[in-house]
Amino acid sequence: MKKLFSLLCLVIAIGFTHAQENLTQNTIQGLLKGNQDQVIQLAEAFSENQYDWRPMEGVNSVADALLHVASANYFIGTKMGFAPPEDVDIMALGKITGKDNIITALKESNAWVLDKLNEVSTDELANEVDFGFMKMNKLGGLLIIMEHNGEHKGQLIAYARSNGVVPPWSK
Fold first, then answer.
1. Which positions are annotated as binding a divalent metal cation (predicted)?
2. Structure pTM?
3. In sequence order, what are the residues at sequence separation of 6 or more whose Cβ sits closer than 8 angstroms to the Cβ of residue 43?
4. Which residues of 124-141 are buried (b: 16+ CB within 10 A; e: fewer)?
5. pLDDT(146) > 70
6. Beta bridge partners of 128
7. Residue 143 φ/ψ, nearest 5 degrees
8. 149 touches 35 (CB < 8 A)
């Protein structure tokens, strides 16, 4: 019995240690996934016609905002050293049209960036990255991805409310 208890304690300790290894990445990934899911819910709640709506001339439309998030996921990820999927042309994402196509592109971008978070080791978090608009470490890059998605979730909530669309999670 004592051996079984000792073995159980060892297994729990190993599992806890492993879970702590990527605590930062796992935490960011969980928060990012929550934001991504809500952005997708908003994207699905808008009608096809509302995708062209913009609050004023010169400001991104609903479609533009969604495609901007998809493009930024790839852009920031590539700056962190990850090659985008071979079938993705980051520069052409902004030309995608149609609600279903835009949602598909966003979902693929979301899945890709979530997967890449798992490839950043804790030892790499302090490594400097030149994002073009500023230099910071990889941890900062992960936080930028999370914050950027949250920023545009807020934008899309405002767009939704302006169009009589209730965010699905607040019904």
1. 68, 148, 152
2. 0.86
3. 62, 66, 99, 102, 103, 106, 156
4. ebeeebeeeeeeeebbbb
5. yes
6. 137
7. -70, -35
8. yes
Under 8 Å between Cβ of 56 and 117: no
pLDDT digits (tens, 9 = 90+) for 147-162: 999 999 999 999 999 9
Structure tokens at 144: 């930028």
Instruction: Please give the domain boundaries of the chain with CATH numbers for all domains.
Output: 22-166 (1.20.120.450)
- The burial of 23, by beta-carbon neighbours within 10 Å (0-12 exposed, 13-18 middle, 19 or more buried), is given as exposed
Binding residue ranges: 68, 148, 152
93-136 confidence digits (pLDDT tens): 999 999 999 999 999 999 999 999 989 999 999 999 998 989 99
Residues flagged as binding site for a divalent metal cation? 68, 148, 152
